[in-house]
Design goal:
heterodimer; A: 67 residues; mainly alpha; 43% helix; 0% strand; globular; B: 171 residues; alpha+beta; Alpha-Beta Plaits; 4-stranded antiparallel β-sheet; 4 helices
Chain lengths: 67, 171
């Protein structure tokens, strides 16, 4: 059963690397991906999130690190 | 009979385009191109797509990059802090993908690109619910609306009672 936060993305196919504002909600102030225990995502969604963040970083839509 | 075979052919072609995998190319057009040159770069990318079925696209918009992209072209380091970002979603056979990648790599006006396999449906189409990422409550707690207390009707007072109380006050 998906938990509360999982409803936010509903399905991993909705996680898009171009949706930077959505991805930012799952990053800490340093620009690092939050752990699953903090994001509350399912395993599949967390993997999709990690991939989307890494794609966004490569395309310079998100920073690799925020000092 | 001829008509029938033609219909069958059209159906087969439709099936082929349906069965082809869907990709999306996101790209940054170099800022040196300028506002007027972006359209020609997009046209170059589309020509590299060949017979691909274009599902959706977004024309490149100028944006500030999250970090400075440095690339060395002709022995000179080029630094870019902004670029025109756009994307094209298309259906194309797997065998045609390396040629597309090579065309994008060879295009000097494309600062950076990313080809991903995706789905035909628009990913961002569905409305999303806002839910906080944290388990802690953030912002204001939503309170249960307080039910209106039953309004008590004032008991009816007879004319005699009013007169009595008035007399009491006067005397």
């Amino acid at each position: 059963m998906p938990n509360k936060t999982d409803n936010y993305v509903a399905h991993f196919q909705r996680i898009d690397y171009k949706d930077v504002e959505m991805l930012k909600k799952f990053l800490n102030p340093h620009g690092k991906i939050m752990p699953r225990r903090r994001t509350g995502l399912s395993a599949a969604n967390q993997r999709a999130l990690a991939e989307a963040v890494k794609r966004a970083r490569f395309m310079a839509l998100l920073p690799f690190i925020v000092r | 009979m001829v008509e029938k075979s033609q219909t069958a052919e059209v159906l087969t072609q439709a099936n082929v385009s349906e069965s082809r995998p869907v990709y999306e190319v996101g790209f940054h057009v170099a800022p040196t191109v300028g506002d007027d040159g972006v359209a020609s770069v997009v046209a170059e990318i589309k020509s590299a797509l060949g017979d691909a079925e274009i599902i959706s696209e977004e024309f490149p918009q100028k944006m500030t990059l999250a970090y400075t992209i440095v690339r060395s072209e002709t022995g000179k380091r080029e630094k870019s802090t902004e670029a025109y970002f756009g994307f094209i979603k298309f259906a194309l056979g797997r065998e045609a993908l390396p040629a597309l990648q090579e065309a994008l790599r060879a295009n000097k006006n494309v600062l950076r690109y990313l080809v991903i396999e995706t789905v035909r449906e628009d990913i961002q189409a569905a409305p999303r619910r806002a839910v906080f990422a944290s388990d802690r409550l953030e912002g204001e707690t939503i309170k249960k609306p307080v039910e209106d207390a039953p309004v008590e009707k004032p008991a009816e007072i007879s004319q005699e009672e009013i007169d009595k109380s008035l007399d009491a006050l006067v005397s």
